[in-house]
Amino acid sequence: xxxxxxxxxxxxxxxxxxxxxxxxxxxxxxxxxxxxxxxxxxxxxxxxxxxxxxxxxxxxxxxxxxxxxxxxxxxxxxxxxxxxxxxxxxxxxxxxxxxxxxxxxxxxxxxxxxxxxxxxxxxxxxxxxxxxxxxxxxxxxxxxxxxxxxxxxxxxxxxxxxxxxxxxxxxxxxxxxxxxxxxxxxxxxxxxxxxxxxxxxxxxxxxxxxxxxxxxxxxxxxxxxxxxxxxxxxxxxxxxxxxxxxxxxxxxxxxxxxxxxxxxxxxxxxxxxxxxxxxxxxxxxxxxxxxxxxxxxx
Amino acid sequence: xxxxxxxxxxxxxxxxxxxxxxxxxxxxxxxxxxxxxxxxxxxxxxxxxxxxxxxxxxxxxxxxxxxxxxxxxxxxxxxxxxxxxxxxxxxxxxxxxxxxxxxxxxxxxxxxxxxxxxxxxxxxxxxxxxxxxxxxxxxxxxxxxxxxxxxxxxxxxxxxxxxxxxxxxxxxxxxxxxxxxxxxxxxxxxxxxxxxxxxxxxxxxxxxxxxxxxxxxxxxxxxxxxxxxxxxxxxxxxxxxxxxxxxxxxxxxxxxxxxxxxxxxxxxxxxxxxxxxxxxxxxxxxxxxxxxxxxxxxxxxxxxxx
Lengths: 298, 306
Fold this sequence. Notes:
The structure holds 2 protein chains of 2 kinds.
Chain A: H1 2-15, H2 21-31, H3 33-55, H4 87-123, H5 125-139, H6 143-153, H7 158-185, H8 188-195, H9 200-236, H10 248-257, H11 264-291
Helix pairs in contact in A: 2-11, 3-4, 3-11, 4-5, 4-7, 4-9, 4-10, 4-11, 6-7, 7-9, 8-9, 9-10, 9-11, 10-11
Chain B: H1 2-29, H2 43-52, H3 59-71, H4 86-121, H5 126-140, H6 143-157, H7 173-199, H8 202-209, H9 214-226, H10 228-251, H11 257-267, H12 270-298, H13 300-303
């Protein structure tokens, strides 16, 4: 029995001789210290934001009016704000919103972008030309302004927030996917798959998608920080997340209004936001080097 | 070339028309009129105000009037600033934003290009890592973090500059730095990548083999090609500078168009919102055209396609 399992395992190994794309990528990724560091930092911030509130003795809305605007202390690690709320806890909740919006918006942009790009690349010819012309035109539009407009008109609710941000960020994704599909379609291994008589679904699932996935993951990782940035800008202007909820942009806004007297109210949220952007950018760069070797020649 | 410019200008007309239509109907879709949420006014007066601004007409008539006025370059009266027209407000505040944007772009180019060139000359040494670490730092410090931090350190801590206002030349420093540093950091990365690609080309090797001095290799042979990614980035950069100006003008209390737009968004000053969006759209479309022309001039390979 044991020998049999060994045998099939060996067979599987010889079938996938050489290294698969993912194994190769993992190898390169784990060699990239900066990217690993970025990944670890992001994991820590993620756990801090999502698991932290369960461990914290305060809620994001608990006010202690006897302890208003206190500097960092043992009870309140990052001090309290002008309403006597624990800043550390508010940063945790803010992180949930900021990171959550970042990922949700990226998911929206992924959905639109991959679909649009695949259709365009597959169809080719005139349909493709028209669809890409539309993308070119949309590129030239002042989209941040439209997001602000949407938030003003339809109220400041969080679902609309990430839908709007996602609707802005899909253009580059569509371009990348379309380019990939277009060039993959012409390659010999797809031709070989067709010649072997594989079904169209199998070609798409087994041969096209895994090869498109690399650049898509890379670009998605880089979309998360830019979506977070857009959310923070909106919240900073007072057009995004509304109090008493918190997001990092909102905390930075509140902090910047009181920085002369209570600098920690600015410094802590700004630190968390910047460190997260830093980590995600390094992670994205590392993934790009690992998954998209063509762009990582230098 | 002229044909190219003309066709691009023609193409932009339907785009702008689309934007005008989209903003018009989006704004009209909004619940509540521009005057319904302010302090309680008697229904008679409200009716009078709505009548005055033509808000009682059927929406198609309003849309027709709006377009007719647009062709006469009339953006209508501002709802929030009584007695002022949107055109006046834009004409008054845009020069301020333009000045800020120019300084910021200057800061970005003056810091980004040299840093990128230095980094590309000795890749993977200290000369590469040092500027690139700073550029990574710049990218991760968004304007609304950098602005307050600069104000806190250079403004309040050292007392060199005022932290708000737009009066003296010194008042220009902090906002321009805040807006420009991010783009400087990005341009440094693009310059480095562009230069690295060009420097690995055969014609550079040939030039070096022929004994062309290094400074000539850099400035005469590679810089033009190496700058292409930076030129490509200028289009999106200007759109970014515009939205960045919303934040920077809010932080430093600068009376520019960006702050007017944000205020209009808060006050539901609909004519002002529509006017500003259209103005920004025209600005961006025109600037993208300029970038395309510069690109074609710098990269002969692109010219074959028109």
